[in-house]
UniProtKB/TrEMBL annotation:
Designated name of the protein: DUF3836 domain-containing protein
Source domain of life: Bacteria
Organism per entry: Bacteroides pyogenes JCM 6292
Length: 166
């Protein structure tokens, strides 16, 4: 009798723990995706995105690097290749900082060269005295020649572009 009560208690405890774990996972869910972040201190150094479709499937991975001022210096994205069971490079964004400016350079992975192509797109953000974007210019390269694509002077437009890059 005692053994039966103990086993029922253990089963109930296991169910409670599982339900709390599932609730924590659901809190991270964004649509049909779940993220897992790896941090060093207060900085996110890696983020894996899982697709939720009955089971969890690897989807995308992002690796981040920072400078000594804890500003992001690069963001590298990888796509999961289920057939080969490995992460394949996808794109990279490099961030450079100067007085009153942030420059983002975007490059795509070239499988034939096994390297990132020369910059494909570049965005330059002008910052105000509060380090908020107030203007931005976006460049795209075609046949190794830069072509100015967009220029914005409204803060809202810059914030939209910043969120698209990150």
């Amino acid at each position: 009798m005692k053994k039966n009560i103990l086993s029922r208690t253990m089963i109930l405890l296991g169910i409670l723990i599982a339900s709390f774990s599932y609730t924590g996972l659901k809190a991270q869910e964004n649509g049909n995706f779940i993220t897992n972040e790896e941090k060093v201190g207060d900085l996110i150094v890696s983020k894996v995105i899982y697709k939720l479709d009955g089971s969890l499937y690897r989807h995308m991975k992002y690796d981040f690097t920072y400078d000594e001022q804890k500003r992001m210096t690069s963001k590298e994205a990888f796509k999961w290749d289920a057939r080969r069971e490995k992460w394949n490079p996808y794109f990279k964004i490099d961030y450079t900082y100067s007085d009153g400016q942030i420059t983002l350079t975007y490059a795509r992975w070239n499988e034939a060269h096994k390297a990132y192509d020369a910059q494909v797109e570049k965005s330059v953000y002008e910052l105000n005295e509060n380090n908020m974007p107030v203007a931005c210019v976006n460049y795209q390269w075609k046949n190794d020649k830069p072509k100015q694509a967009m220029a914005f002077s409204k803060q809202q437009s810059c914030e939209t572009l910043l969120s698209l890059k990150d």
